[in-house]
């Protein structure tokens, strides 16, 4: 996916273009939204933003460690050892520094080879070889009492089902949809003997939520299924973010359901996140559908951001929230503008970038900024790593320079450290 240049026109904020993600959803393109000053001015100002940058972060290394472990054990067919790690990860609620569930990363690595082969075949226009999934089914039959082994096979079916749907063409829609439902039905069947609540296994509850896409009436189950998952693992923001996306009108819900469940989630997770549950549920929903702003309680959302930061000071989270406020909530004009009251809410959330930078930012994680720019939500788009890092750094520094342009136009600089942000006067 090539990067589009940021236009250089002055005093314009064009409406975002729309583009399709791999699942066919329409997403806003935020590439043209960072413009209060010409690009040349911003590029000059970014040289006076002194912010340490981490091309490889602790979060990425932790994710890679779990994924690689799962993949290695699967390749060596050490299924009992892998099952033990998955069960331990569930029981201990083992997570990466940024809050990603280790159990799901292990399971992702374990099925990566089979899923990648199926995706490659479908993108080449041919049906996937069934040898990979058949081998996993044989493994499941051998370890039929192990929920962890069953989970790996079920998630493989879910991923292959999505691959069939994502590669459907106008001529082959019926065939691909039939395969999508076939794989989801198989995943549902093999997971049915295992209950995530009874086994205290958030990974199983998460898989049940993933199965909503294949159900005939998911709207009736979405709130209950995600409530079970979040109650099992309230420390994980991923589940709350996924709930918000699932409740959008384009998926299984409505704006009214989204706001109701965000409030209920905040109430149930208050001991962990304060008001943060409300913000987590809305985070990806707002990124994917600006219309969700119409029901948003802006004060509650901002309180939630502050509570998240107070409880989770990890720089991965600080970069996530800063990129959201700086890019996704950037002001719009023209046809992209929503009613004035809604635009006021957008502007207020955008202004939260100031206190996030001034009080909490210590280091830049470029990949988070490039992923937010390219595709808001849980799943990042993946051009080359080098391109992502470079674009993320450029984007972050422009956003920061734009916010503090008046402070550094005199030649002074803005610096960041563990003690906070401070201004260095011009020499």
Layout of helices and strands:
Layout: E1 18-20, E2 26-28, H1 39-46, E3 49-50, H2 58-75, H3 79-92, H4 102-123, H5 131-142, H6 147-166, H7 173-191, H8 202-210, H9 222-232, H10 237-246, H11 255-268, H12 270-273, H13 276-288, H14 298-311, H15 315-328, H16 340-359, H17 366-374, H18 385-403, H19 405-408, E4 413-417, E5 420-424
Parallel strand pairs: 3-4
Antiparallel strand pairs: 1-2, 4-5
Helix pairs in contact: 1-18, 2-4, 3-4, 4-6, 5-6, 6-7, 6-8, 8-9, 9-10, 10-13, 11-13, 13-14, 15-16, 15-17, 17-18
How is this structure best described in words?
Residues 1-26 are annotated as: Disordered. Residues 16-26 have a biased composition (Basic and acidic residues). Helix content is 59%, strand content 4%. It has 427 residues and is mostly helical. It folds into 3 domains: 1-54 and 314-427, no CATH class; 58-216, no CATH class; 218-312. The protein has a 3-stranded mixed β-sheet. 46% of the residues are buried. Mean pLDDT is 87; it is low at 1-37 and 378-383.
